[in-house]
Amino acid sequence: MNLDLVLANARILLPQRGLTPGQIGISQGRIAVIAEPGAQLAADETVDCQGLCVLPGVIDPHVHFGFGSPETDFETESRTAALGGTTSVLSFHRSRDIRESFQAAHDRALAQSCIDFGFHFGLTSHLHVETLKEISERFGVSSYKLYMMYKGAAGLAQGFTDIDDGLLFAALRETARIPGAILGVHCENVEVIPLLRDPLRAAGRDDLRAWNEQSPDFLEAENVHRVCYFASKTGAAVNIVHLSSGEALDEVRRHRRNRNAPPIHVETCPHYLFLTDESPAGTYAKVNPPVRGQADVDAMWEGVLDGSVTTIGSDHVPRKRSTKDKDIWAASNGFPGTGMILPILLHEGYHRRGVPLERLMEVASANSARHYNMPSKGGIEVGKDADLLVVDLDLEKTVDPATLESYADYSPYEGMTLKGWPVRTLVRGRTVALDGKVTDEARSRPGGRYLRRL
């Protein structure tokens, strides 16, 4: 067999085997052979990995492409993803009627993205629930998100009138009727937040910790309980997205002990594993739920280690620096981060905390492939897509937004030196980023594919 590409002289992260010397043969975008170091493999091209690690590509199940520059985000943000080792993303799509809006979003992404992509549907009305089965089957989408922080006045400010506990229960009930479907929920009790926020503003507080204090951990935990309890009554699989606090994670653990509980997945974000409310990033680190104290950062790492945390998503939002250069109350929420998942996991997890690579890549890749029905993704195995990263675990780089290719012109991590970066990113066997730059071919022929999951 003549292969398209061989990655030779590598240390390959293999399931149940860890880092193993060998080489990978790729044919027609898939892993065709995993061979011993000395095996003779004929190929059109051979890349000498010089003893560096080969890891599976990161799957980011939580990005908001289109919230920066709607017409071009899939171009710029897929590039910043690839530079950091993210080879597949799931982005959120919401509109008044998804039946009418989805195809245009799909076609734009297909024309622009240099990595593979799929979508979640944002559920904000009873129309979305009533048409959920139809749009899921029609567009191949099996995961959704409901925003509990947009209840009441907070929702009206965004134009949402239907978001309440009734919509939550209806969405869970309908999700349970769709095989393999998962409902993700943003958990924050927005009805209590004003009671805590207004005195902070009146006192003149304008610091990142104030953002944490106006939406503390128990407001997240209370909503987590509500979601898990309703899920137990409907049988729906749920995902607590961007979970940020130890108290909320303990609430998940408590519900999981119920032997009749449906699947309860937990996603956290790289910023909850790395940043605190004392970060000098200030408003650049403003996000919902807030970044919290060091104890919660440690609790999230405990969750990664013990399996309570199942996936890592960036919650990537690519807005401009100008939307952040305001006080803490007026600055926009969210920040870019999809290309930072792997560097942060390697720097803070592998190097500083000694978390095994196998565990890091399970939460960064394999579990998302499993939960979100992407069987060709998530690991280095014969037959899977050749979404692969050649990684220099010892490479140190300082985060510079000017080199990250995002529409966003800042990063909450800018100026930080992180250890462990990909030097080559392959999507289905094609190199899309090399030595910190997007390849000319990926620019001229993006080539990303749509991940139909139902």
Query: What ranges have pLDDT less than 50 throughout 5 or more consecutive residues?
Result: none
Task: Please state the CA-atom Rg, rounded to the nearest Å.
Answer: 21 Å
The share of residues in helices is 25-40%
Total number of beta strands:
17
Number of helices: 14
The residue-averaged pLDDT reads 97
Strand content: 15-25%
State the shape: globular
Largest sheet: 9 strands, mixed
Give the N-terminus to C-terminus distance in angstroms.
Answer: 33 Å
Category from helices, strands and their pairing: alpha/beta
Account of the protein in words:
The chain has 454 residues and is of the alpha/beta class. It is built from 14 helices and 17 strands. Strands 1, 2, 3, 4, 5, 14, 15, 16 and 17 form a 9-stranded mixed beta sheet that branches. An 8-stranded parallel beta sheet has the order 6-7-8-9-10-11-12-13. The longest helix is centred in the middle third of the chain and has 18 residues, at 217-234.
Walk me through the topology:
Elements: E1 3-14, E2 18-27, E3 30-35, E4 43-48, E5 53-56, E6 58-63, H1 73-83, E7 86-93, H2 98-112, E8 116-123, H3 126-130, H4 132-139, E9 143-147, H5 152-157, H6 165-176, E10 182-186, H7 193-202, H8 208-214, H9 217-234, E11 237-240, H10 246-256, E12 264-268, H11 294-306, E13 311-312, H12 341-353, H13 357-371, E14 388-398, E15 417-427, E16 430-434, E17 437-438, H14 440-444
Parallel strand pairs: 1-4, 1-5, 6-7, 7-8, 8-9, 9-10, 10-11, 11-12, 12-13
Antiparallel strand pairs: 1-2, 2-3, 5-14, 14-15, 15-16, 16-17
Helix pairs in contact: 1-2, 6-9, 7-8, 9-10
